[in-house]
Amino acid sequence: MTQGLFEGNVDLHTALTAILPTLIISLVVAFAVGRLARRLLVSILGDQLSVTSPLVRGPLRLFSVAAFLLCSAVLIFPAFELAGVRSRTGVQMRTIGEWALKHGVKISLIVLFAYGLIRTTTLLVRRFEHEVSKGTSLDALERAKRARTLGSLVSNVSRISISGVAILMVLNEFDINIAPVLTGAGIAGLAVGFGAQTLVRDIISGFFMILEDQVRVGDSAAINGIGGLVEQINLRTIVLRDEEGTLHVFPNGSINTLANKSKDFSFYVISLAIPYHENVERVTKLLREVGAGLQRDPYFGTFILAPVEIMGIDAFAEWSMQLKLRIKTVPQKQYEVGRELRKRIRETFDANNVAVPFPERIVAVREGADPRPEPMSQ
């Protein structure tokens, strides 16, 4: 059998000298291909990928095994040539050398250039986010939110685009006709345009939502009546987590109402019930003193943008008057400031004997009237 493959006899020492290095190199290449495929899947799918899932481990193992077999088949006969035995078939050293000079250098340059371009884009995005986020003012915090949103989108789109173009160029260097791939991509684009109108609507809606800066990552928003914190903004979906920790995913095309509760500033509104017999001016003066004291606080004062605003009597209830007031804060700090304001209002009212309203009933008895009920007639 060996005489049909090689010119001359092949002893055990020569065979081991050729086969062992070939297997080691093939294992290294297979491991590198598996790691590269995993990183590519992670970059495309993000945190949604679970590398322990059988649906993911199967394709990764297939890539590794295919790379191992292909590398072994290509290198085994040149390895025998280096061991001193000339092969009658298979890939020759001269063929590998010519291919490496003609195509191998180009493939290496394509891979290095693509990797460098991806890394450069990532660094530029991080630099952009860092420069935009400088400062501690409210405007800087708002710019930082928008920078994170745009940065994540640019990084994902550029990574996928550059990787796709690089793969097509490498396939072309392997003399694989990429025209059917491009034709299939065009047909797939038409199919998406006609058959996946919902997907196209989601992507277009997401693009304009990001372009118009309607909502950013980190904003407190209510989407279709569900409130929470925005965790991700993608071209197709927006991810919201509510106060109970539940994760809500909304397709961008299905968003009917979007209320951003942390755009530029926030208000904490209190409808305060006070008894009818209390002096409104006295209560208003106490509330202003409480607001001024809270604004001077070294911790809470950094979140307050304006003094407490007393809006006046808003309604008359059966046993109290409703006095409405509000305080302006930085985004997402209105609830923390509001709870502290309520606590201080209660302490101030107790210290100044401001009564707490409660239901009252006034019973009037006419003088000389018989309090006994009248007998019922037969």
Order of helices and strands: HEHHEHHHHEEEEEEHEEH
Largest sheet: 5 strands, antiparallel
Measured distance between first and last alpha carbons: 128 Å
Rg estimate, integer Å: 37 Å
Describe the structure.
The structure is a single chain. With 378 residues, the protein is an alpha+beta fold. Among the domains are: 1-91, no CATH class; 177-260, SH3 type barrels; 266-351, Alpha-Beta Plaits, CATH 3.30.70. The protein has nine helices and ten strands. The chain has helices at 2-5, 12-45, 54-82, 93-132, 138-173, 179-195, 197-211, 280-296, 334-351, and strands at 6-7, 86-87, 220-223, 226-233, 237-241, 247-251, 258-260, 266-274, 309-316, 321-329. A five-stranded antiparallel sheet has the order 6-5-4-3-7. Strands 8-10-9 form a three-stranded antiparallel sheet, with helices on one face. α2 (12-45) packs antiparallel against α3 (54-82). The termini are far apart.
SSE map:
Layout: H1 2-5, E1 6-7, H2 12-45, H3 54-82, E2 86-87, H4 93-132, H5 138-173, H6 179-195, H7 197-211, E3 220-223, E4 226-233, E5 237-241, E6 247-251, E7 258-260, E8 266-274, H8 280-296, E9 309-316, E10 321-329, H9 334-351
Antiparallel strand pairs: 1-2, 3-4, 3-7, 4-5, 5-6, 8-10, 9-10
